[in-house]
Amino acid sequence: MDLEASIASGMPVMTSPHDVGPPPANLDDSDFDESTPQLPPEKGPSDLTDSLYQISLATSLADRLRAMSVVRIAREQIDLSELAQQGSRIVEHLQQIPRVLKPGNASTNNNDPAMLLNCVLLSVYTRRPLLCLYRPLVLGDPRDDPIFPEICRICLESSLANLSYQDNFNPSVADLEVCNLGAYWDLFQTFCYNDILWDALSVCGYIRLSSQRNSFESQKSGRALGSSMHSKASLIRSVESTLDSLTARIGEAGSNLKDILLLAVVLQSVRARGSTQVQGERMSQGATKALSACRQHLLPAVAEDSLALSLTDFAQMVGLMAK
After folding, report:
1. pTM of structure
2. Which ranges of 37-180 would DSSP assign to H, the alpha helix?
3. Which keywords are on file for this protein (predicted)?
4. Are 195 and 128 in contact (CB under 8 A)?
5. DSSP element (H, E) containing 44
6. How far apart are the C-alpha atoms of 271 and 283, rounded to whole Å?
7. Which of the listed ranges 12-21, 26-35, 81-90 does the model predict with the highest average pLDDT?
8. Considering the chain, what percentage of its residues have pLDDT values greater than 90?
9. Terminal-residue alpha carbon distance, the chain
């Protein structure tokens, strides 16, 4: 709880990594009760039990706490080696998640939406400190450091992984044979709404940096911004898809028009090239389009041309983004 509160509030963690104990035994709830004098032998590390999710999270807890302890200095950190070292430990934990708990494991969780949601949440929760650690760098200025491109690539891949999980529960694209799909979509949004918004913004940050790659390619490594195989068009499509899903949920519990406008404006700011005036116009158009889409979802009977939008409300935000 302390870790999640730190992530949500941006405050330092209070729990020391040294206070983290060993993970629980890999047992089902039915294997013991209050009268059991001694726990039975635990099952294999990859055997699916009621405890396997908690074991995976507990195994990475100390390193996730360490990562959050240095998040506050990530943007000002001159030497990125410590950040990369902390992040690499979490990447290792992601790779060590048992195959049975990985969202892409079709043999176990694709036909069970509850298990699929648990697997997705395990992945998202494990990635959160990693993204909190690397995101300030991706959203900041380019760094002339040989580690910087790899940090950006890892942040991008984790952000895209989280964004891809939407397709498992979004009723517009997910398997219609999955029962209670709307309920699981609502649960996913409840637990992961902030993650999805920040991940989409992180992708926008990567697009911005990749467009400026000539100014921050490392002279030592000669590498561009990471080794991403994603084109700019595919990244924009991912953000547009996220924007559409957020817009479709406008009016639902937890939705926020300001978040939709922010993402729409930021996306147009990284797409646009040219003068400040051209960028400002594109950003204003993005805000107008987002407002129109939200209006149509809230009031479908109102024609699009009846929307009276005053761009004065966005002048300050657009001006700041254009700079």
Report:
1. 0.84
2. 52-69, 81-96, 113-138, 148-164
3. DNA-binding, Metal-binding, Nucleus, Transcription, Transcription regulation, Zinc
4. yes
5. none
6. 9
7. 81-90
8. 45
9. 39
